[in-house]
Design goal:
Blueprint: E1 27-32, H1 35-46, E2 54-58, H2 65-75, E3 90-94, E4 99-104, H3 112-116, E5 127-132, E6 146-152, E7 157-163, H4 166-173
Parallel strand pairs: 2-5, 2-6, 4-5
Antiparallel strand pairs: 1-7, 3-4, 6-7
Helix pairs in contact: 1-2
Bound molecules: adenosine-5'-diphosphate and magnesium ion.
The site of adenosine-5'-diphosphate has 16 residues, from helix 1 and helix 2.
């Protein structure tokens, strides 16, 4: 198995990973040696994601989910501060052609909140949704098109990126190379 970024460290979760590109299955893994590498992966994703897609960011506290979202938002041209939505549940970023909603369900406990907050309406054809802690979002959370799983290593992080719908797989297939 080859891993990007020149690391020889095995990445246990990888499936069908390839050194530079993407496997036929729309899955690939890479090492992220530092914060900048996590942001760079977010920036690559920014080049291929489209309104209407939902991107799940999984991984433990501190795995780099918000960092990846920050890199993606910067690449889209957002220059302000990218805050973690841990306490607000969702942060909105308005771009000229679409809205980006950055969710964090870490503190989400009551699925009834879905109805009260009208969360379903955020997931539509004209919005791009990034979701941290999707595992805590409950059954009503729409399924993702792309999932990024981040894993903490002694030095750096491992990332596994997977397209899960036709649109998601297409995205990953067009991901710019490093
Ligand atoms: N690839 C990486 N290697 C080392 N540290 C990283 C990497 N990516 C992000 N970090 C750092 O990890 C910390 C937690 O990142 P954050 O994005 O807030 O995690 P999460 O949102 O998953 O809880 C930050 O200090 C960030 O700079
Ligand atoms: Mg976070």
């Amino acid at each position: 198995m080859k891993i990007q970024a020149g690391s020889s460290r095995p990445f246990p979760e990888s499936e069908g990973s390839v050194g530079r590109g993407v496997s036929d299955a729309g899955v690939f893994s890479l090492m992220l040696p530092d914060d900048a590498a996590t942001q760079a992966l977010g920036a690559r994703l920014a080049r291929v994601v489209r309104p209407g897609l939902s991107v799940w960011l999984s991984g433990d506290l501190g795995a780099g989910k918000t960092t990846l979202a920050r890199g993606l938002l910067r690449e889209l041209g957002y220059t302000g501060r990218v805050k973690s939505p841990t306490y607000t549940l969702v942060e909105l970023y308005s771009f000229s052609r679409f809205n980006l909603y950055h969710f964090d369900f870490y503190r989400f406990v009551d699925p009834d909140e879905w109805q009260e907050a009208g969360l379903r309406e955020y997931f539509n054809d004209t919005s791009l949704c990034l979701v941290e802690w999707p595992e805590k979002g409950g059954e009503l959370l729409p399924k993702p098109d792309v999932r990024v799983c981040l894993e903490i290593f002694d030095a750096g992080r491992g990332a596994r990126v997977q397209g899960l719908t036709e649109a998601g797989i297409r995205c990953i297939a067009h991901l710019p190379r490093l």
